[in-house]
Specification:
The protein is mainly beta. The chain is built from one helix and 17 strands.
Length: 280
C-alpha cells in the first residue's frame, strides 16, 4: 500500500494558512479576469470591446461585471455594469445590467445628479474555467457571445514552493490505495526565458515526480496538456505516464493549481488540487 508521509516542513504561517483554509464539497472557480469575444467577426478584432469580471464571496457566488461595449443603436462606445449571482445549484450566474450617468468630470461633481438605471439583464454560463457564454440584453437588444479569458502578460511562476496537495485516487491496482489523501509537498517550477516548455517537480513523501510540457497561458490561468509525468522512488521509476496540469494561477503568497492523470502511482487515476507559498 502506498504511504505518503512527508518530511517537508512548512513555515508556521504557511501551515496555519493550509490548516485553516475551508474545505468545500463543491469546487468553485474564480472567473475574475478580462474576457473578450472568442469568435469576433473576421478582421474586426473587436477592438475596444471587453468585459471585466470581479468575483467575490466565500463561495464565489457574486460577480461584478464591467462591460466595454458599443451602444446597440448608435454604435458609440458604451460603459455599463452588471451584478450577477450564482443560480441555485448551478454553475451559471444571472443578474441585471446598469447604466450610471452624472455630471462631466471636467466640472464640480454633484452626487445628487448621479442617476443609475437598470437597462437590461445578463447571464454568464461557464463552459470551462477559461471559456463561457454570455447572454445580455441592453436597451431591449439581445447579444450572445462566446467568451474567453484575455491574456495581458505572461505570469512567471519560476521558483521554489512549500505547500499541500489533496490527491484523490481511484481505480488503483491495489484497492487499498483508493481514496483521498492530503500530503505536504515541495515544488520547483522552471521555465527558461524564450522557451514555451515548463517543468514542475514535486516532492511528495519519498517520491520525486516531474511533469513537463508546453505551457499555455489563458488570462490569469496556465495549463500544460499531456505533460510528461515521471515519478521515482529512489532510483526506481514508479510512474511513466502523462498528466494534465490546469487552473494554475499566481496567488498573493505563491501559486495554486490542479492536475489529473489516468495512470499515476499504482496505476491509479489521480485528481489533485495543490496550493503552495513561495520559499523566502
Amino acid at each position: 500500500m502506498l504511504t505518503f508521509r512527508s518530511a517537508v516542513l512548512l513555515p508556521a504561517a504557511a501551515l496555519v494558512f493550509l490548516l485553516t483554509t475551508p474545505v468545500r464539497a463543491v469546487e468553485y472557480i474564480d472567473y475574475t479576469d478580462l474576457w473578450i469575444d472568442a469568435n469576433p467577426p473576421i478582421n474586426s478584432g473587436m477592438g475596444g470591446f471587453g468585459i471585466n469580471f470581479i468575483q467575490s464571496g466565500n463561495s464565489f457566488d457574486f460577480i461584478f461585471a464591467t462591460f466595454y461595449i458599443y451602444d446597440p443603436v448608435t454604435g458609440k462606445p458604451d460603459w455599463v455594469t452588471g451584478q450577477l449571482e450564482r443560480e441555485a445549484g448551478k454553475t451559471s450566474f444571472t443578474g441585471n445590467i446598469y447604466r450610471t450617468q452624472s455630471d462631466p468630470t471636467s466640472g464640480p461633481f454633484v452626487p445628487k445628479n448621479t442617476v443609475t438605471a437598470s437597462i437590461g439583464t445578463v447571464k454568464f454560463t461557464p463552459a470551462s474555467s477559461t471559456t463561457g457564454t454570455l447572454l445580455y440584453t441592453v436597451d431591449k437588444v439581445t447579444t450572445t457571445l462566446d467568451l474567453k479569458r484575455f491574456t495581458l502578460t505572461e505570469t512567471i511562476l519560476d521558483g521554489s514552493y512549500w505547500g499541500q496537495a489533496s490527491i484523490r485516487r481511484t481505480g488503483c491496482t491495489s484497492s487499498g490505495n483508493n481514496g483521498t489523501t492530503s500530503n505536504k509537498i515541495s515544488l520547483e517550477i522552471e521555465k527558461k526565458t524564450g522557451s514555451t516548455q515548463a517543468t514542475y517537480t514535486f516532492t511528495i513523501a519519498n517520491y520525486n515526480c516531474t511533469m513537463s510540457g508546453a505551457l499555455i497561458q489563458e488570462g490569469r490561468f496556465q495549463k500544460i496538456n499531456g505533460a510528461s509525468y515521471v515519478c521515482y522512488l529512489g532510483s526506481d521509476k514508479m510512474v511513466n505516464s502523462t498528466a494534465d496540469l490546469f487552473n494554475i494561477a499566481a496567488t498573493t503568497q505563491g501559486m495554486e493549481g490542479e492536475w489529473t492523470s489516468n495512470k499515476g502511482l499504482d496505476g491509479c487515476k489521480e485528481e489533485t488540487h495543490f496550493a503552495a507559498v513561495i520559499q523566502p
